[in-house]
Specification:
The protein has 379 residues and is α+β, with helices and mostly antiparallel strands. The protein has a single domain (2-60, 68-374), classed as Alpha-Beta Complex (paralog of FGE (formylglycine-generating enzyme)), CATH 3.90.1580. It contains eight helices and twelve strands. The protein has helices spanning 2-9, 12-15, 20-25, 41-50, 120-130, 207-216, 224-232, 308-315; strands at residues 57-58, 71-74, 77-81, 104-108, 111-114, 156-160, 176-180, 297-303, 319-320, 338-342, 362-365, 373-374. The strands form four sheets. A four-stranded mixed beta sheet has the order 1-3-4-9. Strands 11-10-8-12 form a four-stranded mixed beta sheet. The protein has a two-stranded antiparallel sheet with strand order 2-5. The chain binds calcium ion (CA). Residues 255-257, 269, 271, 273, 346 line the site of calcium ion (CA).
């Protein structure tokens, strides 16, 4: 069983860790049998040779007529999307950031966006009003996971569990555990709670939970293109949401991870926080948005397809309001339905998974959740 899990998931989970997705992977889903058009290696090489960032051109129609509480106006416009960062040092997997290439030209309309990730306090209002039950709180059904023994069908979610000693960073199951009873109310399991954490981002949220919240709030999730336009804050080609230097004047700009990963007491909290932080603790970006890098990953509406950027670059000079591919396509887990996640988390380190770099991408299984994944909304 353990060997099978390792074999099936060895690459994708290192990026996002969809632990509930483990259950899905052990079933024989045939949901993704459709052929997706693939570029040849030569075509991809040509696209990459041409790739470059061009200047961001914002729309002029800045809305000032009406304000939205807790939101800022993102003007939209035309920008260069993606990343050409050398992948060798990221996530210890060669080629892992090729999904963010080539850099391609995209236009998005303007939109309102939440200044911060949705907090526990905000999510609690939604739960109180609707009595909604999140995916992690539901007992997985036998018909959903026909290959999984009944004893393993327990409600829970993924929790980062530091290792006792230094480990090789090639198997995330060493530090990610499926914990019974872990959900948004108990992010680390039964023994954890939200006391004093009203202003922390809600976590242990799966895609459908985020969509349900957004609908209740009269909002929606951003597309991946909207998210990246917003995260760049009007800047062109910068590596981070705040610029091109990780620590300008020696000052951290986001809650990420310093120290030995993923060891117990390894997180030194040099940036001010060991583990997750309340929202809005660092300077906002050019649009007044907080925490677009680090703290928690953010769910967006697009399906994940590692070749999507190549397809857009091949088909359009400028892709207008791209909504993502029609269905997910991830070669390492062809039977897993994956959504895009963006921004990295408090667990991202320069040693492992530097996805706080603004153009890079993450992804995770649609039903899964973990204690480093949250979201924010747009309208
Ligand atoms: Ca930190």
């Amino acid at each position: 069983m353990k060997e099978r899990k390792r074999k099936i998931i060895k690459i994708g989970f290192i990026i996002i860790i969809p632990l509930v997705g483990l259950l899905y992977l052990l079933t024989n889903s045939n949901l993704l049998k459709e052929e997706v058009k693939k570029l040849t290696n030569n075509e991809i090489k040509e696209l990459k040779e041409e790739e470059k960032f061009e200047i961001t051109v914002e729309n002029k129609n800045r809305k000032t007529d009406q304000k939205r509480e807790g939101m800022v106006w993102v003007p939209g416009g035309e920008f260069s999307m993606g990343s050409n960062i050398n992948d060798e040092s990221l996530c210890t997997i060669k080629g892992v950031t090729n999904d963010a290439r080539p850099i391609h030209r995209v236009y998005v309309d303007g939109f309102w966006m939440d200044k911060t990730e949705v907090t526990n306090k905000e999510f609690a209002k939604f739960i109180n009003a609707t009595k909604y039950i999140t995916v992690a709180e539901r007992k997985p059904l036998q018909e959903e996971f026909p290959g999984v023994p009944l004893s393993q069908l327990i409600a829970g979610s993924g929790v980062f569990t530091p290792t006792k000693s230094k480990v090789k960073l090639d198997d995330y199951l060493q530090w990610w555990k499926y914990v019974e009873g872990a959900n948004w109310r108990h992010p680390m399991g039964y023994n954890s709670n939200l006391i004093g954490k009203d202003n922390y981002p809600v976590v242990q949220i799966s895609f459908e939970d985020a969509v349900a919240y957004a609908k209740w709030a009269g909002k929606r999730l951003p597309t991946e293109a909207e998210w990246e336009f917003a995260a760049r804050g009007g800047k062109t080609a910068s590596t981070y949401t705040w610029g091109s230097i990780l620590k300008p004047q020696g000052k951290f700009q986001a809650n990420i991870y310093q120290g030995q990963f993923p060891v117990e007491k390894g997180d030194t909290g040099e940036d001010g926080f060991v583990g997750i932080a309340p929202v809005g603790q660092y300077e906002p970006n050019g649009y007044g948005l907080y925490d677009m890098a680090g703290n928690v990953w953010e769910l967006v509406s697009d399906w994940y397809d590692e070749n999507y950027y190549s397809q857009l670059a091949q088909n359009y000079r400028v892709s207008s309001n791209p909504q993502g591919p029609e269905i997910s396509n991830y070669i390492n887990e062809p039977n897993s339905l994956q959504k895009v996640h963006r921004g990295g988390s408090f667990l991202c380190t320069d040693e492992y998974c530097t996805r706080y770099m603004v153009g890079t991408r993450g992804h995770g299984e649609i039903k899964s959740s973990a204690n480093h994944i949250g979201f924010r909304c747009v309208e």
